[in-house]
User: Fold these one by one.
Assistant:
Number 1:
Amino acid sequence: MSANDIIKRVQKGEIKLHELEEHVDSDMAANVRRQIIESELNVKLSSIGNYTFDAKLASTNIENMIGSVQIPMGIAGPITVFGSATEGSFYLPLATTEGALVASVNRGCSAIRHAGGAISRVFNNAMTRAPVFKVANVSESLDFINWISTNYSEIEEIANSTTNHGELTGIKPYVVGNSIFLRFSYDTKDAMGMNMVTISTKKVSEFLEQQTPAKLISLSGNLCSDKKPAAINAIEGRGRTVSADVLIPRKIVEEKLHTTPEAIVEINTQKNHIGSARAVSLGHNAQAANIIAAIFLATGQDAAQVVEGANVITTADVRDGGLYLSVTLLSLEIGTIGGGTHLPSQSEALDILGVRGGGTPPGSNADAFAEIISSGVLAGELSLLSALGSRDLSSAHERLGR
């Protein structure tokens, strides 16, 4: 059937928009939807319809596809990183519409490179899912969590049977009267792993309902906590918890960043700590979300998880006359396989970083990715704090015309 034939059948109500892939290939389905929207709304969608990948590739990422949105991508770096999972100089692919961001990160990368590089380490890896159960009373709540502890080995076997890659690493109960939230933690290797842990937790939850009086109320009880600002992710971590730091000699701070270590330390204290505390902010940093969002968009990560990724604490001290600066990303949820990482542009961006696909051993690529991201965040924090110290922030935006 031609596109016109399909359009007529849709307009007659014989085929629904979301059913098009059952009748034509993915690209024609997107084309038909786009033409219908153009006709109904009297708009032109030629740019949205100008994409280079096979629409079938995106079938697991999108429904009712009509095209794609292009976001400018720039490169910052190289930045030198000394991690446990990776070591070397890396260019950072940053997809953003915020003028001056790439220039800012690039300046931070240059200063860190001239200082000898950043050190980065992953401290924890735990993707979580937290179902909520209900029992009759608090006595049954205690019985339920004791039963889980006693039968943990069997639960672990059931959880791990659903995947060849992930593994259950723990279950932590939280009781509110007769409601019990179980925060399951998994090592999802190189995948971000939300689908993986959801499937696994569902199977365990069904087993718990069969074996105990507890009733599953919701597979997600928001104690996970996914895509929402939450102190529990800052305290216990979610995804990777990763830190990066650097010691920058005074000469580099003064000559390249046009400020002093003392000025940066004071700004970091007043802005990132006291100011954030007064605002009751979950992130004590200058602009971590900027860098994380730009890398997420470039590499096919779940963009909504920037919420947790921005759980970042920046510290600064004067050390040996120079500047010691660190960032700790408390809940960075990333993957180098799955999600949008298989799309062509996103795959190429991961190739720039050298972390595309599964690592050897499993999980090593995602660990390397986390170490590089944290070093990029460090560069962004350094540059912005320096711009505030030299009072160049507004003039830089004016000079770059945005």
Number 2:
Amino acid sequence: MTIDTRNRKFKLIELVMSTNDDEALKKVEKILTKATSKPDIQVAVKPLRSNVSLDDIKKEQNYQPISYKEFRVLADELDWEESVEELLAMLSK
């Protein structure tokens, strides 16, 4: 959080504390509730489609396979400082 954001929050708190306008407070509450609420699970999750094939999914996602040789070239170019054991240990944390 930046200092500007922190100051803005404090100014908003001061404004809220100094007002007695219930309608204005309701509007602010509604806006902030909407801005900080998590999406409903039913909205976030799409239903499973029936009769969809792997080929359909590949086409939709524009899947472009690479050969093992191409994969090895890309993997060998990675510059990892950690060992495989250290990387696996990070996954279990």
Number 3:
Amino acid sequence: MSNTIITVENISKSYVLQHQKIRHNDSFREHITNNIKSIFKKKDADQSASQETFWALNDVSFDINQGDRVGIIGRNGAGKSTLLKILSRIVTPTHGRIKIEGRVASLLEVGTGFHPELSGRENVFLNGSILGMSKNEIQKKFDEIVAFAEVERFLDTPVKRYSSGMYVRLAFAVAAHLEPEILIVDEVLAVGDAEFQKKCLGKMKDVSGEGRTVIFVSHNMAAVKALCNKGILLHNGSIKIIGSATHAIENYLKTGINTSSHFDCSDYVYGDDIIRVLKIEILNGFNNTNQIKFDENIKIKFKIDSKQDFENISVAIGCLSIDEIPVFTTRGPVSIVKGENEIICEVKHNLRANNYHFAFGISVGEKSNIYHNPNAFDIEILDIGNNTQYLTNNAGFVNVNSSWQIV
């Protein structure tokens, strides 16, 4: 007897995008006038706009078994959210069909399924009713839900007054505790603090241990690896990999490594826009790439444009594994002048051979967000020579010196 609980067959989903044609000879006043006129025109084959069909999903098929913990991963725009909305029956596919056996509870964005004017208590019962549970069944789970969400003091407060963290805590507690056969959770958990995220991952493991199915979307590969036993990697609306979570994650991470020694950062501006980092260059990259030999220091040059002079600003470089596990952070005080500046940082390291992701930030005094780029650049540490002991990926991130003696 098959224990398949979700069957997805040749799912495709298209959206029609409207593109307004701009007549470059028009003045600004004419643009405004034409836009006002268009309100009163009948919608027809007017040349003022063109249409494009965008396929968010294209011929996607897979099966999910009862008790599976499935991680759906992929870059932004890969089709993850569209797929979850179809599985949650929020949208219908353009082509194909899905078959789902059992009750589905979805947590796709902050506020999913909650009525803002109702209290937390009332929303618990409302959500339970939507899932088809009786009042007595909800009441049996009520204390457990409230304890998990840690919102006892605000139970009788309208949820529109909740912070995003409180909203998510209660929404997840309701979705996870009201015994759906299938629990679907999107990146929304990123709103909560680290301790709450850990708590949610543990609860989702418990849910699958009870024979229920979990579908989880996240950009946090460490969380996907910790929770999921299966993985689906989406790319441009199609399935690229389907198999174990580890296999899907490895392929996802490989596609995201930038091998250039020059990184154009002019499009990445986070903070007050007082400082812009225009370019990052790896000075000692092997064969003009971002590859560094394991026994060499990392030399990085930053080209910075500032709107004013700064003395003793704090510049920070954070190193993470490619699945977003922090490895180290280094900080240095520097002074910059108004206009373009170049800063060189040399990092003495003992990193093992692997790929690493770097974030970069600048703060001044108590202002911690003068500039912050979480996706600054990537580096690959190479093991050149006979040092094969450094090649194992499960041996940690750093090499250490040690001495041994028999006593």
Number 4:
Amino acid sequence: MKNIELKTAAAYIRVSTDNQTELSPDSQIKIVRQYAKQNGYIIPKEFIFRDDGISGRHADKRPQFTQMIATAKQKPSPFSAVLLWKFSRFARNQEESIFYKSMLRKNGVEVLSVSEPVVDGPFGTLIERIIEWSDEYYSIRLSGEVKRGMTEKVERGGAVSVPSFGYSIKDKKYIINPETAPIVQMIFNDYLNGVPSIQIARHLNDLKIKTTRGNAWENRTVDYVLQNPVYIGKIRWNPKEKTQRNFNSPNIMIVDGQHEQIIDAETFNKVQEIIAENKRKRTPYSHYNINEEYMLHGLVKCSNCGASLSMAVRGQSLQCVKYIHGKCNVSHSISIKKINEMVLIAIEQAFETGNFNITVRNDENTSEPKIDIPALIDKEKLKFKRIKEAYEDGIYTLEEFKESKLLIEQQIERLSAEIEPKSNENELKEKLIKQKKNILRTLKNPKISEKDKNELLKSFVDKIVFNRIKSEIEIFFYV
């Protein structure tokens, strides 16, 4: 590690299934760590991202991959490289691979395969593309074979997916879960007795009950349970496409399963009749098909859960989006007219008194973004903490530790010399207050479009927290 600048890297580890001929996660980590040590990288424990038993064809199905990308997009990125056992661990979909690698490289993050080194320049890029194409071709063939095998298993009534809420899996068969099956029965009984899905979801969340995937309940999660034939001993499977809640797709197979039912057929059928009747009665207006151009769009937040308030039914009011889906138990419904008045009054009072807090936010759209030097210094200090841990864990020798420590101290010294005095907060306030007449005149002018007012607000307001219980708002300003 002599004369090599110490850099921080992330490691991405993925194993598709338990029975494929790939290196185990521990073996992948070991090989990646060896490469890192030989090439001047440190890999902190918090930057080891690992997805087990997950396909690499689609990034949105890999939570740790998504978390890694989000972490790498920080300004500046906390690591300069992503180390992989093979490029196939990153993706087996070439289109996604190119997209995410390009995104990372724009933020100064390389993607390196420790077992498939490629040379720099166009030829190396070509070799990398050929490797990716080969991986994608293999993945497509494997996917087709797996899907055929799963379809044959479904035809015999076998289990082919994660067990639905209320069931566990043993010896590749669904068995009734004695803890969650009664909750499924409660959901069906409540719905039969007239309790809407959204109220059922809120009740489950109040009881601290989580879904199979460990998430909070929503009205659509409850609806999925109510329409799932698995609970009457059936298996539902679509061999050609993702169902996406289109339970009337002609490609869907429903066959008798090998598991016990939790709900009797009579109860299940009555629930389906009620669902169908409710759909017929449902208003054509919805939260999703209305024009959302209004002055406070994207700015107002729920004081209970922090989610955004969005335009509710018929476009006359705002409501917490998580409350709409049953994930928040405190309604924040308020008419748009009323909250507009509250915001305008609060802004006017803030400008008159000067009694408000203001923060400085870097403009990411500028061609030369301002470098956050204190953050870079903190990053170097964190680096030192990590190499100290690596030394204590026996990964680095005392000599390597001393050499790395010296490099970090020199970098901190250079950065410290570049720190500029921060802008005075009072000066920023005065600058904003000087514009108050034009700002308020524009916001109150009925001839100005809601979209233009929204863009003006977003130029100096970060968020507006609304507390319905206290009937008050708090505005967070920035420049």
